[in-house]
Q: What sequence folds into this?
């Protein structure tokens, strides 16, 4: 039995599907309660219906983009786990980065089914769960007090520190990307027996993916095709991954 | 119902939202942390907690800071119900936040009002249910495609998921921020070229790389503030 057959087994689907179903029920409960509260407040039902309809239509396209992310991760982590992660709590860019970091910790050179073992998988799955729990944890501990305080104090955000905080977050991601791109450059330049003789496929894939992203940005910003943005990350990733297959076939 | 009764009813709703929100957040947390152990029991291999701790130090801290910042920024926008739901269902920046903001703009609700609380909860709940439904249908359709997805020809694609992601993100983040990205990228490339064994610890290299990027951002920020003060 291959590792992917194990990761796609019915019991794994049952565990992941059960959690997705639980979260779906939570969403229904919140929705019904909010609707009733709106009616009690005398809000226009047509207005609330319009909010639901617009949110549904707004979400369909990005959801297809997220599904592409499930496909992208299913080759290394099986289908049920990425399905759970991207239905609940996760985001595509987060899941891939953390999965890669966890793969390194268990001694894998890359996140792939070829090197995956059941222990590596459960370790990766645990790290993915632990690293993204902060929003839920902070909501549980502080939301009531935090919102009450904002309600009383007006909730305006400061200028200087908040401005830098926002930039620092972006800088942190830039640093993260630089570390990985640097590793691809290093692997190509000094990974082989001779200089510039190492594995160049990650670098080529990253290049194709970046070019596709540039195309998506051009279409959404310059050509008014804003819907392209919903697919930009997942779409660029899939084009980059397709390039990896073509490069392997041709080179 | 007069205004006072409405306010009292809304306060009760809000109070109960916090109670339900806390219970479901804790339950979801337990389920998500417990799932790898449940899967470990099924697969006959429990997670390596030591490796998880090391991974957390290398990459988890970055996400912790980002998680705290997201919480502080988005909770006031989303209100109680919307906030709990959004942090449980994820995909905040790419979906839930724009969805809730567009719903709020559509009806003209103001942050911190009862109307905003109701609208953002309805919007995020609807959005989350659509994502869950689309993904469930997609996964059902994926089952017959498994033999194709596992074929030898497609394996290079799945082995390059991470470079594909970082390529796309590099364009997105470097665009307009090359002043910040240039030095960390050059330094990291040189380090990986000169010490090839570092490739196995790329996630640890995020820390010096991130520190460099933040330091450059701080210098640029200070320079901009000084220039604007003059």
A:
């Amino acid at each position: 039995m291959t590792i992917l057959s194990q990761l796609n087994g019915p019991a794994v689907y049952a565990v992941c599907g059960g959690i997705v179903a639980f979260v779906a029920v939570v969403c229904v409960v919140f929705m019904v309660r909010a609707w009733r509260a709106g009616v009690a407040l005398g809000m226009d039902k047509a207005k609330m219906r319009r909010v639901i309809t617009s949110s549904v239509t707004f979400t369909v396209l990005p959801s297809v983009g997220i599904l592409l992310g499930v496909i992208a991760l299913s080759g290394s982590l099986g289908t049920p786990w990425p399905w759970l992660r991207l239905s609940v709590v996760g985001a595509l860019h987060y899941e891939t980065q953390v999965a890669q970091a966890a793969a390194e910790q268990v001694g894998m050179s890359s996140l792939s089914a070829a090197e995956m073992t059941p222990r590596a998988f459960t370790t990766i799955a645990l790290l993915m769960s632990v690293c993204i729990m902060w929003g839920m944890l902070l909501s549980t501990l502080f939301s009531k007090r935090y919102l009450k305080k904002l309600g009383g104090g007006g909730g305006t955000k400061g200028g200087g520190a908040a401005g830098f905080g926002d930039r620092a977050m972006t800088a942190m991601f830039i640093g993260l990307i630089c570390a990985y791109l640097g590793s691809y450059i290093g692997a190509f330049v000094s990974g082989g027996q001779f200089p510039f003789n190492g594995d160049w496929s990650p670098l080529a894939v990253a290049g194709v993916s970046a070019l596709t992203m540039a195309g998506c940005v051009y279409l959404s910003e310059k050509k008014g095709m804003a819907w392209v943005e919903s697919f930009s990350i997942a779409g660029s990733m899939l084009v980059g991954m397709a390039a990896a297959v073509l490069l392997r076939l041709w080179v | 119902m007069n205004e006072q009764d409405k306010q009292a009813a809304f306060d009760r709703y809000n109070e109960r939202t916090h109670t339900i929100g806390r219970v479901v957040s804790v339950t979801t947390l337990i389920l998500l942390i417990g799932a790898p152990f449940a899967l470990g029991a099924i697969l006959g291999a429990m997670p390596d907690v030591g490796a998880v701790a090391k991974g957390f130090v290398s990459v988890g801290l970055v996400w912790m800071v980002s998680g705290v910042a997201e919480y502080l920024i988005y909770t006031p926008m989303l209100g109680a119900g919307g906030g709990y739901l959004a942090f449980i269902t994820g995909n905040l920046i790419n979906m839930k936040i724009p969805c809730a903001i567009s719903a709020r703009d559509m009806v003209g609700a103001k942050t911190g009002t009862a109307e905003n609380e109701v609208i953002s909860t309805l919007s995020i709940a609807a959005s989350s249910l659509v994502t869950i439904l689309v993904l469930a249908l997609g996964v059902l359709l994926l089952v017959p495609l498994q033999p194709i997805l596992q074929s030898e020809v497609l394996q290079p694609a799945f082995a390059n998921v991470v470079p594909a992601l970082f390529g796309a993100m590099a364009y997105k983040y470097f665009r307009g921020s090359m002043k910040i990205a240039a030095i960390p990228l050059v330094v990291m490339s040189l380090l990986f070229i000169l010490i090839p064994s570092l490739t196995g610890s790329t996630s640890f290299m995020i820390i010096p790389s991130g520190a460099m990027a933040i330091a450059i951002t701080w210098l640029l920020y200070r320079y901009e503030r000084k220039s604007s003060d003059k």
User: Anything to note?
Assistant: The mean pLDDT of chain B is 88. Residues 160-229 of chain B form one domain. The radius of gyration of chain B is 23 Å. Chain B has three domains: 1-47, 60-153, 160-229.
